[in-house]
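Hi there, hope your week has been kind to you so far. Do you reckon you could talk me through the fold, stretch by stretch? I've dropped the whole record in just underneath, so have a look:
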Amino acid sequence: MEGKILTLNFDMLLEIIVQLVNTFILFFAVTKLLYKPAVKMLNNRQERIKNDIESAKKSKEDAEELKKEYEEKLSGIKKESDRILDETHKKATDNEMQIIKEAREESDALKKKTQSDIEKYKEQVKDDIRREVIDVATVMARKIVAESLDEQRKQELLDESIREMENLKWLV
């Protein structure tokens, strides 16, 4: 066997078969013990990452939905506050108008009362003046009767009474 590099004999063939069987056993053992658990671990990890991504997407969608709800609520609150401000402004304006109206009514009533009081006072003054004129005329008549004098003296007394009446202040 000298000229051959590789010779197949039974021992060598048996050794090759044993090596092949050992390789398959080792391959089967490595596949069962290492590869499948590694693949299973990688699949579990991939599934966990997928679930985390889905959970993150769902959380993001929920957050966006909450954000939208809050923005709508804020918009509603702003509209409500604007409505309340407008309503308050209207009530204040109405109250202002009511106060002005009441003040005018009170002013008119006070003006009418004052006018009435002035008219009553004028009437009272007129009555007082009439009484005063009557009193003066009575005094003149007494003087005229008491002094049954001649016509010239009557004229002087009348002129004197007229001068006295002119000196009185007339409040008409």
